[in-house]
Backbone:
């Protein structure tokens, strides 16, 4: 398909990523390994490996395997608050990874400097305008703004509001939009607002090439948008980063754990940092149980509200072609009507 409108509209994104399409498959812990990342890149979009809390040597092997399967660009997503973060940083330096995406919290300046000195491009998540500007000053080459509709750990503000608050005010770098995107039509809208491209997660989690357990994929296919809910925080004395997932027994177990930790905090049996670490460890383990072992009752079914647009298991290439064609068609409708009206 000839991309009359998309080609220009997302040029900043494709130039930055070195891809045919300015679509990223966002990192998904346990899911975004070499099979998915290389399939995405080989289909013209941008694949990302999730470091999660993998042992450093496993991350290193994943980078090697991805390179064996694709010669196209891909990135590695590092979680700055993961216990293995420093070891992961050493791996991406040693392996001379070209794109590093920092997630979890504002990356430490020395980590940004190290990666830049190594010649890699840096992408950071921007939860507010002030932080977006700070990260650009600190050296981010591009930003991702991810709204509350997204799957996994989420901020409080919706994608549509973040886009208005941040996109027009940070012209220095390309900005990619994520959270709740399920269709090409939506990609077209964000591009029209000035996005350089879009990042999707949930739709690719059920791709044929995703190693997620068939039970996990089926639960996502059955779910509708309202089933993917963020976890609540019970008390400010134990701050909880909300996680959007399909409600199941695992969600209820998380609530029980939160209450138990709150009691232990009150009785001074545990400190706040340890309690928060235990909550994060819960998610890592619970997500693995659902994604790898297929325990969809007690494991975590992290998914965005975009889950309502996940209808079947499809090859990566087909998902990407569908997104691109629908985005281009939407743009044709908009611009061709405009021309007729003149
Ligand atoms: C199962 C799952 C795991 C995720 N893990 C990570 C992660 O490790 N690092 C990260 O930056 N984002 C993570 N995300 C967020 C995705 O990269 C992406 O930004 C998000 O899924 C976009 O929203 P969508 O699911 O509505 O498309 C995860 C999302 C899901 C659904």
Residues:
């Amino acid at each position: 398909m000839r991309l009359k409108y998309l080609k220009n509209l997302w040029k900043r994104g494709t130039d930055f990523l070195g891809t045919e399409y300015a679509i990223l498959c966002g990192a998904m812990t346990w899911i975004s390994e070499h099979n998915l990342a290389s399939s995405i890149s080989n289909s013209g979009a941008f694949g990302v490996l999730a470091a999660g809390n993998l042992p450093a040597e496993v991350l290193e092997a994943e980078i090697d395997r991805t390179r064996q399967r694709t010669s196209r660009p891909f990135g590695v997503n590092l979680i700055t608050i993961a216990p293995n973060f420093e070891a992961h940083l050493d791996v991406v330096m040693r392996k001379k990874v070209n794109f590093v995406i920092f997630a979890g919290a504002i990356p430490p300046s020395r980590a940004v400097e190290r990666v830049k000195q190594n010649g890699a491009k840096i992408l950071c998540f921007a939860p507010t305008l002030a932080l977006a500007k700070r990260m650009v000053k600190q050296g981010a080459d591009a930003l991702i703004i991810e709204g509350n509709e997204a799957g996994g750990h989420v901020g409080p503000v919706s994608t549509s509001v973040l886009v208005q608050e941040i996109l027009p005010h940070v012209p220095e770098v390309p900005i990619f939009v994520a959270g709740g995107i399920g269709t090409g039509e939506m990609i077209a809208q964000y591009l029209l607002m000035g996005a350089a491209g879009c990042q999707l997660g949930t739709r690719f989690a059920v791709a044929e090439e995703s190693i997620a357990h068939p039970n996990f994929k089926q639960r996502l296919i059955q779910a509708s948008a309202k089933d993917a809910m963020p976890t609540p925080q019970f008390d400010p004395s134990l701050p909880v980063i909300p996680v959007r997932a399909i409600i199941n027994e695992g969600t209820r177990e998380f609530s029980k754990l939160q209450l138990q930790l709150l009691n232990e905090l009150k009785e001074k049996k545990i400190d706040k940092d340890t309690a928060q670490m235990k909550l994060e460890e819960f998610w890592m383990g619970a997500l693995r149980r659902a994604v790898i072992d297929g325990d969809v009752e007690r494991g975590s079914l992290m998914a965005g509200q975009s889950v309502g647009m996940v209808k079947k298991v499809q090859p990566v290439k087909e998902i990407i072609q569908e997104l691109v064609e629908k985005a281009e068609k939407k743009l044709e409708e908009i611009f061709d009507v405009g021309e007729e009206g003149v």
